[in-house]
Amino acid sequence: MALKTNISACLLAALVLPMASFAAPRDDLLAQYAAAAKAATPAFSSFSAARGEKLHFTKFAGRKQETPACTSCHADNPRSAGRTPAGKVVEAVAVSVTPARYTDPSKVEKWFKRNCNDVLGRECTPLEKGDWLTYVISQ
Amino acid sequence: MNIPYRPVALGLTALLFSGILLQRAQAGGGHFFAPVSDPLVREECGSCHLAFAPSMLPANSWKRMMGDLNNHFGADASVAPPAAEQITRYLVENAADTGGQRYGGRLMRGVSIENPPLRITELPKWVREHRELSANDWKSRDVKTKANCAACHTDAERGYYDE
């Protein structure tokens, strides 16, 4: 009986631990964005998935006409794969579908810089990054 | 002695023909461009578009392109400096006028090596090879841009660009 419990505990740990190891870098990243958002706006309290969702679907008159919104490459459904203008498949942004996403901070920063410049015509603020990340983690 | 000219001539013609075919097959008919082998280059250049073979452009094109990644044909494709240097080195070493000559040599006909274009689609041979396609072919839903080689060349990722 005790052995059985042990095995179940091990199995549970094996299932949960990898998720926890994926979540930790994302939490660190969110904490960094929160600190930066607070520094920029002392009234900042927390990130909002709703604001992130709005940002995700907003059409901007940014730099590239062919990619006016996040959804231009990332598909209208966050749980679906997207497609770049040159035909490459982009894995779904939703963490529930692509669990390893946003675990490499330098990769996250690289894509925020590129994509915000192309879509919004400027870099995103820490508030926008945190909101968007909160949105896709919730999906 | 009576030499049977006709059979000999026929035989020689057949031999010549298979020789040409064999040579073309060995050279991939000019339609093989060794794909990117460096994992970093494949990852960084292959996220938005096919990781184009370095032998499709001369070294000077790659140098100029890598020096202006913030404005990569209108998009921000910036890469952090250490990675960018490694990518540039790979592209320059395997370019059409350096290490990749046996694949890209023919593509360089009529191209100024000092001041080459940045777009593969502006090379005279590329234009000639695609002259039969209409504007509508390029605009079709599955193609969209001339950078989407794999829409028609289904084996492009592996380096084969046959018709």
Describe this structure in words.
- The complex is a heterodimer of chains A (139) and B (163).
- Chain A is mainly alpha-helical and 139 residues long.
- Chain A has five helices and two strands; from the N terminus they run αααββαα.
- Chain A has helices spanning 2-40, 49-57, 71-74, 105-119, 126-138, and strands spanning 82-83, 89-90.
- Chain A has a two-stranded antiparallel ribbon with strand order 1-2.
- The mean pLDDT of chain A is 90.
- The model of chain B has no long low-confidence stretch (mean pLDDT 90).
- Chain B has helices spanning 5-26, 39-45, 59-66, 81-93, 101-104, 124-129, 135-139.
- Chain B is elongated, with a radius of gyration of 20 Å.
- The N and C termini of chain B lie far apart (49 Å).
- With 163 residues, chain B is mainly α.
- The longest helix of chain B has 22 residues, at 5-26.
- Helix content of chain B is 40%, strand content 0%.
- Chain B has seven helices and no strands.
Q: What topology emerges from the helices and strands here?
A:
The complex is a heterodimer of chains A (139) and B (163).
Chain A: H1 2-40, H2 49-57, H3 71-74, E1 82-83, E2 89-90, H4 105-119, H5 126-138
Antiparallel strand pairs in A: 1-2
Helix pairs in contact in A: 1-5, 2-5
Chain B: H1 5-26, H2 39-45, H3 59-66, H4 81-93, H5 101-104, H6 124-129, H7 135-139
Helix content estimate of chain B: 25-40%
Number of strands of chain B: 0
User: What global shape of chain B is seen?
Assistant: elongated
Order of helices and strands of chain B: HHHHHHH
Per the principal axes of the C-alpha atoms, what is the gross shape of chain A? globular
Placed side by side, the strands forming the largest sheet of chain A appear as 1-2
Major pleated sheet of chain B: none
Query: How does the helix and strand content of chain A classify structurally?
Result: mainly alpha
Number of strands of chain A: 2
Rg over alpha carbons of chain A = 18 Å
Secondary-structure element order of chain A, as H and E? Answer: HHHEEHH
Strand content of chain A: under 5%
Poorly predicted segments of chain B: none
Question: How far apart are the first and last residues' alpha carbons of chain A, in Å?
Answer: 39 Å
Greatest interface (CB-CB under 8 A), with counts per chain? A-B, 15 and 20 residues
Strand content of chain B: under 5%
Low-confidence stretches of chain A: none
Mean pLDDT, all residues of chain A: 90
N-end to C-end Cα span of chain B? 49 Å
